[in-house]
């Protein structure tokens, strides 16, 4: 248990997690899953690219950024291993998504909250694969919570910070400031896995299960308070979803690895550094007996 968070299990990496994170044998890239990251407005693609790079670093076999054609030049100039697919009109977004046939999808990081962004979010919600919904996706869900709850399930992970969680469950914030209660309330009311970000990250499930991924004792964790760190976390989680980790496990393990990356990078950390610290973190973790 963690101080100040009674009755809460602390997330710990197990041998099974390590086995499943490793890549070995004769498997090929398609065996490790395909992540699609939905991107937003043309000149604001950085957050989607951060998520995409994080998903690739955590071992998804393929990662594609799906963007409007207007944004293609900006993305193409900055993507190499990550693939790029475009659509020319919002109605074609669904068709392109079907062609890509992802194993997990991330939407939210600078996705926008326009009418067309909402149409695309609805297409994503209709997919049967695991989803990580962050940032602007959460803001849109908060505007029509009932419709989301009717479609949500525990294959969906929402990753709100405190501002976003308040939008999702404003009434609960009037009743309590207990972060555990807030995370559990959101998971129960929305019917999906909720990762509540903060120095202590909470992962709650609709059945009330809740684990904490604590930053206690992790050097330099406070350097995660920087723009884009959450976008990277969304990418880590989506990559783990594509690799077949169950949503609550993907969320907690993703948050754990995120903290370990901060410890490796240290002071001066910016969000781009986090995915690129993952090889050192994974090498150390996978060589543990
Ligand atoms: N490099 C990039 O392109 C970046 C893009 N970003 C995108 O910018 C968009 C807006 O996201 P923001 O979160 O900045 O703005 P939001 O407006 O969604 O949320 C910020 C609001 O929530 C409040 N708040 C309360 N508790 C908070 C907490 N613990 N952490 C953060 N805010 C808290 C803030 O005071 C503020 O009013 C998203 O689409 C996001 O993905 C950001 O992730 C930053 C980096
Ligand atoms: N002081 C801190 N200690 C540990 N982790 C932190 C701290 N501040 C922020 N984080 C982590 O950094 C990430 C920030 O995400 P978020 O607020 O969504 O930022 P952004 O929208 O800029 O990407 C979350 O994973 C959060 O848990």
UniProtKB/TrEMBL annotation:
PROSITE patterns: YJEF_C_2, YJEF_C_3
SUPFAM superfamilies, sorted: Ribokinase-like
Organism: Loktanella gaetbuli
Record family assignment: Belongs to the NnrD/CARKD family.
Subunit (UniProt): Homotetramer.
TM spans (from-to): none
Assigned keywords, A-Z: ATP-binding, Lyase, NAD, NADP, Nucleotide-binding
Cofactor(s) of this protein: Mg(2+)
Protein name (record): ADP-dependent (S)-NAD(P)H-hydrate dehydratase
Gene3D superfamilies named in the record: 3.40.1190.20
Binding-site list for (6S)-NADPHX: 47, 161, 231
Role this protein plays: Catalyzes the dehydration of the S-form of NAD(P)HX at the expense of ADP, which is converted to AMP. Together with NAD(P)HX epimerase, which catalyzes the epimerization of the S- and R-forms, the enzyme allows the repair of both epimers of NAD(P)HX, a damaged form of NAD(P)H that is a result of enzymatic or heat-dependent hydration.
Pfam families: Carb_kinase
Entry binding sites for AMP: 197-201, 230
The enzyme's E.C. designation: 4.2.1.136
Catalysis performed (reactions): (6S)-NADHX + ADP = AMP + phosphate + NADH + H(+); (6S)-NADPHX + ADP = AMP + phosphate + NADPH + H(+)
Domain YjeF C-terminal stretches: 12-285
Tagged with keyword NAD: yes
């Amino acid at each position: 248990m963690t101080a100040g968070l009674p009755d809460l299990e602390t997330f710990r990496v197990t041998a099974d997690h390590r086995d499943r994170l490793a890549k070995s044998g004769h498997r090929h890239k398609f065996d490790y899953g395909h992540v699609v990251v939905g991107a937003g407005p043309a000149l604001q693609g950085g957050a989607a690219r951060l998520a995409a790079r994080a998903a690739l670093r955590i071992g998804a076999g393929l990662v594609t950024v799906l963007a409007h054609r207007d944004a293609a030049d900006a993305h193409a100039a900055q993507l190499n291993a990550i693939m790029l697919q475009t659509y020319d009109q919002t109605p074609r977004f669904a068709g392109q998504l079907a062609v890509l046939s992802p194993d997990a999808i991330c939407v939210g990081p600078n996705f926008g909250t326009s009418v067309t962004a909402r149409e695309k979010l609805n297409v994503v919600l209709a997919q049967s694969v695991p989803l990580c919904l962050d940032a602007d996706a959460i803001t849109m869900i908060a505007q029509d919570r009932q419709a989301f709850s009717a479609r949500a399930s525990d294959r969906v992970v929402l990753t709100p910070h405190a501002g976003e969680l308040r939008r999702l469950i404003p009434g609960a914030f009037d009743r309590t400031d207990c972060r555990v209660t807030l995370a559990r309330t959101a998971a129960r009311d929305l019917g999906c896995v909720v990762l509540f970000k903060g120095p202590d990250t909470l992962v709650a499930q609709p059945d009330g299960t809740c684990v904490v991924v604590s930053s206690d004792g992790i050097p330099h964790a406070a350097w995660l308070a920087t723009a884009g760190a959450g976008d990277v976390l969304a990418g880590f989680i989506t990559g783990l979803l594509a690799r077949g980790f169950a949503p609550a496990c993907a969320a907690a393990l993703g948050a754990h690895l995120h903290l370990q990356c901060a410890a490796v990078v240290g002071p001066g950390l910016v969000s781009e550094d986090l995915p690129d610290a993952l090889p050192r973190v994974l090498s150390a973790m996978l060589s543990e007996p």
